Amino acid sequence: MLLLILTGLAWMMQIMSMMKFLINYGIKFSSFVYLTSLMIPFIVSIIVPFVTFIATIFVYNKMISENEITVMAASGLSPWQLGKPAIKLALLFTILHFILSVWIVPATQAKFYSTQWNLRYGLAHLKLQESAFTKLANGLVVYVDNVSGQDLNQVMLSDTRDNKNEMLIFAERGKLVATIHGLSIITNNGSLQMSGKNGFTTGTFDSFDMDLNLIDNDSDVTFRVRRIPTIDLLDNLVTQEDAKRHKRTLVELCTRFINPLMNLILAIICVLVLLKSSLLRRRASFAPAVAVLLMAGVMALYMSVSNMVSSITDVAIVAGGVLIVLFGLIGLLIKK
């Protein structure tokens, strides 16, 4: 229930943050919902450890307050036996988290960025109105007399985005073309007028290809580690020469292979604190608060360390430290 509720809330926040696609690009509502739904696996992979912790602390604190834990402990059940249900739940979520991180999230993120690019810069979002001026960007306006699919008749294009090189194109025909760099308009049988620091220039042409250059300026936009398949990400460790991208690859590998173990660690921390405190002669009422503080501290420490890795050795050290903590917590839980 927590997973569904928190995922739904996070998804709604994602929808609100991406409303510009509906407003600015005029895409269909169904396409918008599909685009935002591709973020759900990534959202789930982020909140799963916290859901595991919250569910554990809620159930066990309720059982402690109703003296059920005390009765079961008095009947001979050890802390390990009492904590088994939470560990089984955490193990289930660990497996789910691992599958999401290694396979599902990279696939859906790749689809998300591909769909987002097509909706923002591809032919899907561009709807030129006949006999009307269409503003494609600040300083870029297109007028088309007739539109038939991607074929245009009687085209006028004004580009004043660069005041040092303003351009005005008139053409009998045109065609919209999508390339890996964005949208282009290929115009035929027209005239060109340019004004800038070299003065005013005019001429005619048989064919003129103009890149609309609508893509946001982001030099690193093509390298998004979340959308790279895990196998390719591992290959990047050997072939990647850029230091910044190499570090991002290592951090992403920590996220995919080590993060799932946090489900077990947080659940065991919660069980340890609550069960050990419930078996004291004077029950510690502040145990849930202690568990929350420990959870926050452990997650903050792990996230800080994992984001500082810069080599494969660092990743191995982080993984080893997480495993030591995990088995140490299990040992404390088993110890009577």
Radius of gyration: 29 Å
Total beta strand runs:
6
SSE series: HHHHHHEEEEEEHHHHH
Number of helices: 11
Low-confidence stretches: 216-221
Question: How would you describe this structure in keywords?
Answer:
336 residues, alpha+beta, 6-stranded antiparallel beta sheet, 20% strand
Task: Provide an overview of this structure.
The protein is elongated, with a radius of gyration of 29 Å. The model is unreliable at 216-221 (pLDDT under 50). The protein is of the alpha+beta class and 336 residues long. The chain has helices at 2-17, 20-24, 29-37, 40-65, 68-74, 79-121, 230-239, 243-257, 261-278, 287-306, 312-334; strands spanning 132-137, 140-148, 151-159, 165-179, 182-196, 199-211. The two termini are 33 Å apart. Helices cover 57% and strands 20% of the residues. The chain is built from 11 helices and 6 strands. It has a 6-stranded antiparallel beta sheet with strand order 1-2-3-4-5-6, with no helix packed on it. The longest helix has 43 residues, at 79-121. Helix 6 packs antiparallel against helix 9 (261-278). Strand 1 and strand 2 (140-148) form a beta hairpin.
Short synopsis of the structure:
This protein has helices at 2-17, 20-24, 29-37, 40-65, 68-74, 79-121, 230-239, 243-257, 261-278, 287-306, 312-334, and strands at residues 132-137, 140-148, 151-159, 165-179, 182-196, 199-211.
List the topology elements.
Elements: H1 2-17, H2 20-24, H3 29-37, H4 40-65, H5 68-74, H6 79-121, E1 132-137, E2 140-148, E3 151-159, E4 165-179, E5 182-196, E6 199-211, H7 230-239, H8 243-257, H9 261-278, H10 287-306, H11 312-334
Antiparallel strand pairs: 1-2, 2-3, 3-4, 4-5, 5-6
Helix pairs in contact: 1-4, 4-6, 4-9, 6-9, 7-8, 8-11, 9-10, 9-11
